[in-house]
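Contributing: when you submit paired examples, paste them exactly as shown. First protein:
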Amino acid sequence: MWPDGKKHSRNIYGKTREECEAKLPELIAEMKAEIVAIKAGGVEAMSSIPDGISKKKRAIAEYMRLNPTVTNKALIARESGASRWTVQKYYDDIRRMMTAG
């Protein structure tokens, strides 16, 4: 499970099943290292999550990072270009990541 709460799949290609199975531990280790790096990076690292965060969540996070004192969700929505409901959905998660990072 990635920090954005979603599962991300990756594919392994090879000419034989054994070749694919040999590559699997390497891919698992690589993905675990990416997850650790993203968790350590906080909100700034959220943009490095592949296919995991919507553009609106990224815009909300960026606005909140630049304006940490703003807590009015309607204002955040207006300034980031998202709806109030989208801000409501992601607000707590983004705040948690900001305080952790």
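Second protein:
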Amino acid sequence: MSDASYDVIVIGSGPGGYVCAIRAAQLGLKTACVERRETLGGTCLNIGCIPSKALLQATEKFDEAQHHLADFGVKVGKVSVDLEAMLAHKDKVVQANVSGVEFLFKKNKVDWLKGEAAFAGADTVAVTGPDGKRATYSAKAFVIATGSDSISLPGIEIDEQRIVSSTGALSLPKIPKHLVVIGGGYIGLEMGSVWRRLGAEVTVVEFLDRILPNMDGEISKQMQRLLTRKGMKFRLGTKVTSAKASQRAVKLTIEPAAGGEAETLDADVVLVAVGRRPFTDGLALDQAGVETDDKGRVRTDGHWRTTAGHIYAIGDVIDGPMLAHKAEEEGVAVAEILAGQSGHVTYDAIPGVVYTAPEVAQVGRTEEELKAAGVDYKVGKFPFTANGRARAMNATEGFVKVLADAATDRVLGVHILGAEAGTMIAECAMAVEFGASAEDIARTCHAHPTLNEAVKEAALAVDGRPIHF
């Protein structure tokens, strides 16, 4: 006998899980969500997206006060960092967000089952609470939304003191003199930017020959140039073979990725940001007939249904980009399917954003992907140096790039390097979602003066007719 029965039980309360649970409840399904943390929100709200953006925003303001306000005629005295207060701001932001999710659960009558979940059969999940007590719950359907966990490299042990994951990098007790970041992806560049602005020397070691390997090559190249100008150092085509931590420092051994002579690199702190793995530890998936692939991801049929027909999986535990908003869209789609509707996700319309300064954002295909697929396409580009609002903001770094099908003019991809790129990409995602042409964007009236006019101009440039460049 189970302690309670539900229409749907969602396992995990990250962005995918809590959104799925709320939407299911809105659709009239009796819903519960299992979460082992003391707070809701998963990695994103507790130790990922939200706290990192709080620190990025705080350090960007510090950098602006130090180096840029005088350009606007705003004179300030000596500016200093109160790291304790900055970290307290981060914690306050996190608390507000996780409390908000708890409020939304109560508002929508979603039961929070506190503890760790493990399948006890095809239709039953056992939840072990913080007090060690075990309760079982049955449901007509389950949704696995347990997210992902950071990974390390062979021979490198993360202690969250000297050798840290993104979690440890969010709470360093003092500003390191030299931070070495292993990995040139989203997390590495964002956290590297935080500590660089606060005065740390930052060196990024990347195995590949470019940073942001999943983004457009031209954007990646320009982004590295801009970050180098801001003082960040890069060792590309380089692998880390060992990292030995002492009480005061870390000694890394590095060598060319293609093979060659090894050398040592000393650091106060090392951030390992080489990727994440699906987190399904302890779920006892075999008890429910749920299979995983060779990368540990839960197998699904393209409609989020696992090998156990009534159990679904979303977010970081399945194939696809490990992005919070991707998980949210899948969560909504699965909830609607469970309610008898036809949920869907357009994966080409999922944007990706790097929240550095300037930001990088993209949606759709890159030039490299289009070339590899043999797609005939046109390119339209527009620099922020020619945008009036960007000039007023002293934010003229970067450009907008629109890729459109050469025959149909349909927008295939948009790539933005510049201030507020993460906000600007929204209209581009909508264009991809609805199959818009570059001319559709070009003929849409954009308010003046705004940064988004650069998107309009890049769309005009696809046809060789930008107005302001």
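If you have annotations for the second protein, write them as plain sentences, like these:
The radius of gyration is 24 Å.
The chain has three domains: 4-149+277-345, 163-274, 349-462.
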